[in-house]
Amino acid sequence: MSMSEHLEAQTEVVAALHEVRRRWAVTPRVGIVLGTGLGSYANQIQIDCEIEYHEISSLNKTTAMGHRGRFLCGTVGGVSVIAMDGRYHRYEGGSMGLLTRPIRLMGGLGIERLILSNAAGGVHPRFRQGDVMLIEDHLNLLGGNPFQEQQDRFPTLGTRNFYDTSLIRLAQEIARRHGFTAPQGVYAALTGPNYETRAEYRMLRRMGADVVGMSTVPETLVAAQIGVPVLAISAVTNVCRPDSLVKTEGHAVIEVARSTEPKMRDIVTGMIAEMAR
To answer: Which domains does the chain have, with CATH numbers?
Structure first.
């Protein structure tokens, strides 16, 4: 990325900030990405205003199945939040800069924590449909990185984990209170939009992946760069057994993701409640 392109990208984020601030003057404490498996969490938010992505000049509509494409600005349990009701994916054709621009926007608004959610296929044999996993590390197999589009291509990210260990421990405690487990694991991000082959599932397992999906990693990288702690939750919507592979379809994934929603909701609401204390 040239210096002029870098400055233009910064200008677009600043312009987006002004556009949101004109409609919502609150400083949010928590940013949430409502991916597949957490879409109905919108009903838990006391909404002050809704802003469609395409109403912000530097953002586009989302095209992924089940992703509405709007910001929800309001409160949960008295804590100010801004939620992305749907996200951008690498396979939708936009640049990594566009894909992660909403994260930079939320960071500029002042969020203290970022909660990411996604639907993923279970690669580790321990997983079953309907499980949830807390991401402790990732494999970036997207063929790109948001820092490629920056003038500073080697940003200082510090020594802490990309996925905040204290938030993971708290999320696991919240899960135990609600009677289910939320193990930690490694998330592999591939471009998609097709699901993986038998050989790819075997490769991913040998590489150390526990689940596989098509998002989350670029958002996490940018959050680390701007200093926002991340909790990322995967809804295991299908199991990836290369020796007994069954057909996976997007609509079926969404249906299974809905069954995990109570668990995801309990964790997210519990995390926000801790901030209200």
So the answer is: 3-276 (3.40.50.1580)
Identify the burial level of 46 via C-beta atoms within 10 angstroms of its C-beta, where 0-12 means exposed, 13-18 middle and 19 or more buried.
exposed
Q: Regarding beta strands 132-141 and 230-239, do their DSSP bridges make them parallel or antiparallel, or are they unpaired?
A: antiparallel
Give yes or no for a contact between 122 and 131, defined as CB atoms under 8 angstroms apart. yes
165: number of CA atoms within 13 Å, CB side?
A: 3
Residues 203-216 pLDDT 10s: 999 999 999 999 99
- As a whole number of angstroms, the distance between CA 205 and CA 267 comes to 27
Measuring CA to CA, which residue among 71, 78, 40, 217 is closest to residue 138? 217
Other C-beta atoms closer than 10 Å to the C-beta of 249 total 10
| Token pair listed for 234 | 């995967």
Dihedral sign for Cα 208, 97, 45, 26, please.
positive
Place of tokens 């992660």: 100
Residues 214-264 pLDDT 10s: 999 999 999 999 999 999 999 998 887 777 666 655 566 667 667 789 999
